[in-house]
User: Fold this.
Amino acid sequence: MSDLFRVENLSKSFGGLAVSRNISLHMPAGERLALIGPNGAGKTTFVNLVTGQLKPSEGRVVLNGEDVTGLGAVRRVRKGLVRTFQVTRLFSEMTPEEHVTLTVLQREGRASRILGRFHGNSAIADEVADLLGALGLTEVARRRVREIAYGQQRLLEIAIALALRPKVLLLDEPAAGVPSSETPRIEQALERLPPSLAVLMIEHDMDLVFRFARRVVVLAAGEIIFEGLPSEVAANDKVREAYLGNYAHARNVA
Amino acid sequence: MQFVAQTERMTAAPVAGRRRWSRDAVGVILIVAAGVAGYFLFPDSLALLTRIIAVALLVLSLDLIVGYCGVASLGQATLFGAGAYAAGIACVNGVTEPLTLIAIGAVAGAAAGLVMGAIMLRAHGLAQLVLSIAIVQLAHEAANKASAYTGGSDGLAGLFVGPLFGVFEFDLWGQTAYLFGLSLLVAVFIILKFVVSSPFGMLCRGIKEDPIRIRAMGAFVFPVLLKMFVISGAVAGTGGALAAISTQVVGLDSVSFELSANALVMLVLGGLGTLYGALIGTVIFMGFEHVVSAINPFHWMTMVGALLIAVVLAAPGGLSDLLDQISAGKKRNSGGRP
Ligand SMILES: Nc1ncnc2c1ncn2[C@@H]1O[C@H](COP(=O)(O)OP(=O)(O)OP(=O)(O)O)[C@@H](O)[C@H]1O
Ligand SMILES: [Mg+2]
Assistant:
């Protein structure tokens, strides 16, 4: 199999509660996959298992043919398995520029240097400026994160992830909590992601899912209940059942 | 967009950088000025002022791990004591060159910091704090028991320190000791300013706020924190060695829980994570202690308690933050604080 990334029979339970059940999934390079499912379906848990924040009870995570299940979160990031967070995790007193600079320095293995200035390297400064520019964050590059809009913070999450030069990128609801006036910015950023990058996006906004994804996986109660083309998902009975009609978007597109 | 990024990069970056450096240059000049003023204003209290400098080094070292890494410690005097005893023991065994003694103190403090960090970083939160107390109590007991080397509860006396650079004798009035200590403090302060604004310093700030985010950026947390413990130990050890050299004795109080707790109080009083706060807190606390204990030897701690409560309520960020707010005034919203 020439898949860039593969998950085999991943399971996880908290106490007696099975949150992930036997999840298998594969992604070739350049994949655009949407992972959807009702609240509490186990989507974020899946990302946590894949990136090493949580240890699975069973199953394997394979990147580039290498089993990374035994590796910690840091080593997985260094191998190119990168995520963003559903609720942004940023440093409130730091600027976007500092976030991305720190990330690039880390990637270059220079983040724990005591000698040498933080902003000293012009090649890194150029890369940071380009990344921030690509995500439309140039104007707020030197504002503290707590002073910038939430939509911009979400874009910064993506900028940090991209600064790591990932091979597989897992986006956990990149547009959640962003006012609809700002979602086009995020969509634009998603469209401009490097073509060879394999991207898995968790998202509740079905319009966004349909424009982004080439393949859709539906998770319900920790289990994959559907896998297929975006055009097929809304018509699937199991999917409709899982959402129990309380999911307005799913019906909108049907 | 790309073009905008280009031009902004060309102009704004050096300016912001330069502003930060000029700010710190002013800060260092103020520290030197205050130190020199102390020398001329209180010529009879140079021993006290030197003691304040030694403790300021301890509080600075504490700021590195509490203020920059978010690791709370009530056992920092372990590292101070390690430096003091190492310098003291070296001195009674014939090493009398002051700079060598300081270096010995710094190395001993760094080694103690490595051990203390390796132990404390196994735990988190409250357990970590309790570990720090246990460590300083153990170190205190060890120093007490090893009286053959440390003099036990009598203290290690009879330190004869040679002249600085072979020229300046440590005189009875403590002039040499004070000026030596002041130079040491300024040098350490400048080095630490570089440390905390280096990539490493930035990483530490990130770890303080959110270690999970730092890991998701692909950086290990433990080695970074351990490194800061070693640096912190070197600074505290320098302070301990200075105290040993200037007073020519090393007592058990230099490795005590009380000194550790006071150091934390001074840091909170002055403000965390700025380095300036550590200095301000130390000077205010010890100055206050000196004045009030002369007036009322029994209730000075009550007064310090009242002062602390007042500061915490009026300026939760500490005195340095209060000064910052006053001096920054309306500029609050523009530009970041370094
Ligand atoms: N650390 C944990 N301990 C116990 N239960 C947990 C833990 N983390 C998640 N859960 C439970 O696992 C289930 C799945 O949670 P998860 O956050 O993965 O859902 P999700 O699909 O991302 O939902 P949402 O759409 O709301 O983000 C929930 O029932 C949640 O309560
Ligand atoms: Mg979730």
In short: Chain A touches chain B through 51 residues (CB under 8 Å).
